[in-house]
Design a protein that fits this description.
By secondary structure, the protein is of the alpha+beta class. It has a single domain, classed as Aspartate Aminotransferase, domain 1 (Alpha-Beta Complex).
Length: 142
């Protein structure tokens, strides 16, 4: 949906501005990829960006929350987080084990200087944004 309404919190921009410069660029690119993916999906009629646990997060009425963050304790990495109780990470691990690095059952992790495989990541984001419609499908319909 090209004219997708994005409801965002003012507090989110403060978090992006708080990242170191080299991290901010990566986080903004990840944010753009999530928003652009949602815009390409007819099923998505609304996207909300807010803070969950102090991290930028995205949710749709039919999806599971996606969070993104960088943490000082792992300064060379940033990540996209998914609900650890969902089938998302186990499915992504099965489908993309040779493409992505995973952090437990909750995240896909990237090195700051790593080139992201955008096509594969967009498929993961798509599954999360419409999770409640695809959670019953084999490999989430991927």
């Amino acid at each position: 949906m090209e004219n997708l309404p994005l409801k965002t919190s003012r507090e989110v921009e403060k978090v992006y501005q708080g990242y170191p410069d080299c991290v901010r660029t990566q986080m903004k690119q990840l944010r753009k990829l999530i928003i652009d993916t949602a815009k390409e999906m007819e099923e998505i009629t609304q996207l909300e960006e807010s803070l969950k646990w102090g991290e930028p997060s995205f949710i749709t009425p039919i999806g599971s929350t996606i969070r993104i963050d960088w943490k000082e304790k792992q300064p060379d990495f940033y990540a996209i987080y998914f609900s650890c109780t969902s089938k998302l990470i186990p499915t992504f691990r099965l489908v993309y084990k040779d493409i992505f690095s995973f952090e437990g059952s909750r995240a896909i992790q990237f090195k700051l200087d790593e080139k992201i495989q955008k096509t594969a990541l967009k498929k993961c984001i798509t599954a999360a944004l419409q999770y409640h419609k695809v959670k019953h499908l084999f490999n989430l319909g991927m």
